[in-house]
Amino acid sequence: MYKSHWNLTERPFENWSNEQFYYPSEVHQTALLKLRYGVENRRSAAVLCGESGMGKTILLDSFARQLSDDFGPVAQVVFPSLPGEQLLSYIADQWTGSTGDDNESMRGALGRIQTFLKDNVAAGKHAVLIVDEAHLLSDSQQLETLRLLLNINAGAEGSESAWTLILVGHPTLISTIERNRALDGRVSVKCVLQRLSMEQTAGYIQHRLAAVGGEIDKIFSLAALEAIQLRSSGIPRRINRLCDLGLMVAYAEDQPQVDAHHIEGVYNELVSIPA
To answer: Where is each AAA+ ATPase domain found (predicted)?
Structure first.
């Protein structure tokens, strides 16, 4: 609706993963390089933590795109709280691209995984498993299932692992893993996404605007940027929401620039909405 007013080719602040909108902030690039180090050196496990809205999904998408053909397939588990047998069957399905029997036993699922990993290593490849929302793994048995799965080395040589587990979740995930010493001992890389600074927030907004033909100085006043940093606390998802609505309100008022009062008005409306 407001694209033509601001001379933009697309809406720049949508909350979904899109390669052109990935902003390589220092904190995100550091985490991405750590994850690449863990996988490309064939380590057993890595952890990526951050508050909701910190950009974990878009970072992981960028990470997966950067891996060479020697690393894969990259499978993702989005239901980590499944019981042990179902979790293993789900992982086997994701990696192999086929579905096991409805009543598949844990042994059957492990057999499928072991065969897949052996063939994958023989083909010169290294598999990756991303477990999203891993902070929901409150059941110690689920964590133990993943730890035991790491013991399947299936043809990998020396200290190298046949695959890498990447656990992704809220910051509480770190302490959950540390309570499981056996699993913690397999984790080579731990990444925590910190909130963006004022400078990083401005860079983030500029990057997204530039991707769709916009210029930050022409669209947002300095006071507006300061208000966005204050009200978003440097969390990208909140930045997106404030910027998107700020653009809409300023457009509706036929203003040439988004100012601080637009951001404050949007913020006050958002926080007044009952949870």
So the answer is: 42-197
Contacts of 153 (CB under 8 A, 6+ apart): 161, 162
| 138 pLDDT tier (thresholds 50, 70, 90) | low
Task: Write out the two tokens for 149.
Answer: 């799965």
Q: What is the pTM of this model?
A: 0.91
Taken in order 40, 41, 42, 43, is the CA torsion positive or negative?
A: negative
How many domains does one find in the chain?
2
Bridge partners of residue 50, in order along the sequence = 193
Tell me the two tokens of residue 202. 């401005």
Identify the CA nearest to 169 among candidates 130, 142, 131, 135: 135
Question: Can you give the residue range of the structural domain that contains 153?
Answer: 26-193
HEC profile of 154-209: CCCCCCCCCEEEEEEECCHHHHHHHHCHHHHCCEEEEEEECCCCHHHHHHHHHHHH
Asked if residue 44 belongs to a domain, the reply is yes
Q: Domain check: are 259 and 152 in the same one?
A: no
